[in-house]
């Protein structure tokens, strides 16, 4: 056996790859290196260093193609599972989804616990199965990332939920989310394009310390309940520098449930041609609270409901029966919100008679009607508010 010159990492005085010339078969811990043929090959040593605890500045790259993924329209789920098992076993490892390939997956669980600092790099396209029977055992999740620490999903690729056939069905059907992150800590999600979900694009549930940035989330306007990002039971989350164009928005207190939302800050956002701008929507009969919420530096362009609080949400054609309980909306600050309203009512604060909105502040809010021959108005019911600076159209101080 002869070795060629080693390839050294600039940051560590250890070789990362060596060329090995063999005239016979070689075995290094049967499960590490089964055979090298009668030729000179380059072998990635980062995996071996990882196993024995030696430092290396280069991550261990795991390509799904090396585990049998075809990217030819057939089901690649098993190849992705095998690649994930490999990545999960090694620190500083990366699962690679190559560019210029389209992979079809059934519902799949990328679960931990795994070794520290692993990631998934999606440069190609991942598409969901369109066969409803594939979701019988996982009706709410397509891609489920569960119980992971110090994990990152990144890349410039696309995750396509193939949701069109589900949009034609009743919106009451509990359909699958494209990507769910459940019970993760120190999580980063960046650079991805997520489109056409069956229902929700991305869901963060019971996570801690989340950074989501540079995302493009798109579904057509006629796609019911295709919410952009759901955040449930999650602490310390940042969503930044992203484009979100979807067919619906989330709500609080559905089915007489309890909501607890606090300390939310929305800064430097542009809404263009959307149905709603900054909206808080709660169902009658719910409980809990939504408080300490700040909307600041927001630009509206031809938005139907630029500012809206609806504590009496009802999705029935007939009026819903009045219920005494509601989600308390408290301490909401609208600052420096400007632009145009596609409807006459630019500010709509429709609060509960039994539990009015309180601590609402409008500061430097200037909204005009898109149609120049029409004056925008504000409609404010059962709300205690204060106005600061210039506010147009104005609300009464309290109702």
TrEMBL record:
This one is known as: Polygalacturonase
Q: Which SUPFAM superfamilies match?
A: Pectin lyase-like
Tell me the Gene Ontology biological-process terms attached to this UniProt entry.
carbohydrate metabolic process; cell wall organization
The subcellular localization recorded is: Secreted, Cell wall
- Provide the species name: Camellia sinensis var. sinensis
Q: Which family does it belong to?
A: Belongs to the glycosyl hydrolase 28 family.
Q: Which UniProt keywords apply?
A: Cell wall, Cell wall biogenesis/degradation, Glycosidase, Hydrolase, Secreted
PANTHER family from the xrefs?
A: PTHR31375
GO molecular function annotations of the record: polygalacturonase activity
Query: InterPro entries under this entry?
Result: Glyco_hydro_28 (IPR000743), PbH1 (IPR006626), Pectin_lyas_fold (IPR012334), Pectin_lyase_fold/virulence (IPR011050)
Which lineage ranks, top first, belong to the organism behind this chain? Answer: Eukaryota, Viridiplantae, Streptophyta, Embryophyta, Tracheophyta
């Amino acid at each position: 056996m002869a070795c060629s010159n080693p390839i050294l990492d600039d940051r560590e005085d250890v070789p990362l790859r060596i060329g090995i010339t063999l005239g016979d078969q070689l075995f290094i811990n049967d499960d590490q290196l089964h055979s090298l043929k009668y030729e000179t090959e380059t072998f990635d040593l980062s995996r071996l260093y990882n196993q024995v605890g030696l430092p290396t500045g280069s991550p261990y790259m795991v390509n799904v193609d090396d585990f049998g993924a075809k990217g030819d329209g057939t089901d690649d789920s098993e190849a992705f599972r095998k690649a994930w098992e490999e990545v999960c076993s090694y620190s500083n490892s990366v699962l690679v989804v190559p560019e210029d390939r389209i992979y079809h997956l059934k519902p799949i669980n990328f679960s931990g616990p795994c070794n520290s600092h692993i990631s998934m790099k999606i440069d190609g396209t991942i598409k969901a199965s369109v066969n409803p029977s594939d979701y019988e055992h996982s009706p709410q999740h397509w891609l489920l990332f569960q119980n992971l620490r110090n994990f990152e999903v990144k890349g410039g690729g696309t995750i396509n939920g193939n949701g069109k056939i589900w949009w034609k069905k009743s919106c009451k059907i509990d359909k699958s989310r494209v990507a769910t992150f459940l019970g993760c800590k120190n999580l980063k999600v960046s650079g991805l394009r997520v489109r056409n979900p069956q229902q929700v694009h991305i869901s963060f549930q019971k996570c801690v310390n989340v950074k989501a940035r540079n995302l493009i989330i798109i579904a057509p306007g006629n796609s019911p309940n295709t919410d952009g990002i759901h955040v449930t039971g999650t602490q310390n989350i940042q969503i930044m520098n992203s484009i979100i164009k979807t067919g619906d928005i989330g709500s609080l207190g559905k089915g007489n449930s309890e909501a607890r939302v606090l300390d939310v800050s929305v800064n430097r956002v542009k809404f263009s041609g959307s149905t709603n701008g900054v909206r808080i929507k709660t169902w009658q009969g719910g409980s809990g609270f939504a408080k300490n919420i700040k909307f600041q530096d927001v630009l509206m362009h031809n938005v139907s409901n630029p500012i809206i609080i609806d504590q009496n949400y009802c999705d029935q054609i007939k009026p819903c029966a009045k219920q005494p309980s509601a989600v308390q909306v408290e301490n909401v600050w609208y600052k420096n919100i400007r632009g145009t309203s596609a409807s006459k009512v630019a500010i709509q604060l429709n609060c509960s008679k039994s539990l009015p909105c309180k601590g609402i502040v409008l500061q430097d809010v200037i909204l005009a009607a898109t149609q120049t021959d029409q004056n925008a108005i504000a409609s404010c019911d059962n709300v205690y508010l204060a106005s600061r600076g210039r506010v147009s159209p104005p609300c009464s101080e309290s109702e």
